[in-house]
Design brief:
Elements lengths: L1 H13 L2 H11 L8 H16 L6 H8 L8 H11 L6
Helix pairs in contact: 2-3, 3-5
């Protein structure tokens, strides 16, 4: 847990990016009643698609480290995971 807290703090100091920023903005809407982590997961595929042409091979490296086939669409993989775990079931 201490390592997770340390790595979390390091992420905060480096900037959290569009996913986290949008999750905060959406989370402020009390009518949605969605958990911050859920919002991160839901927003992530859209941001992956938006950033894809600007990040070089970073998404390919992430896909390889996840053991995904070369032809995998990382955003689609995240969307499928969201569906499998019931992320959007409210």
């Amino acid at each position: 847990m201490m390592m997770a807290a340390t790595e979390g703090a390091m992420a905060f100091t480096k900037g959290l990016g569009a996913v986290h920023s949008m999750s905060h903005a959406c989370g402020a809407n009390q009518e949605l009643r969605l958990h911050h982590g859920t919002l991160n997961g839901v927003i992530l595929p859209t941001i992956i698609r938006f950033n894809k042409s600007h990040v070089g091979d970073k998404y390919e490296r992430i896909s390889r480290s996840m053991g995904l086939p070369e032809s995998s669409d990382l955003a689609e993989v995240v969307e499928n995971l969201n569906n499998q775990i019931g992320c959007l079931e409210i």
